[in-house]
Amino acid sequence: MSMKKTDLAKNLALKISGQMKAAGTPGRFGEAASKVVDRKEQRRRDAAAGLVPFACKLPSDLVKKINERAVKHEGGVNALLVELIGKGFG
Length: 90
What we know:
This protein is an all-alpha fold. The chain is built from 5 helices and no strands.
């Protein structure tokens, strides 16, 4: 006995929905996306990369200028400061 076209479409839809439920959530949307590296792990990674924390006090107008430039810079604030300080010493 052959099936009607609507029954075939319904069976196909059920099959697809079952596959979607069984597939799981991709890592970028699931638990992996919400995992934030704790401070201890971040310090270990920074040390492995040769980075050392360096704190100093700067005038607020200078900080505003740095933040404005950092938005346009591809590496962010850290990369911008590395570049600027490197130019100052080099």
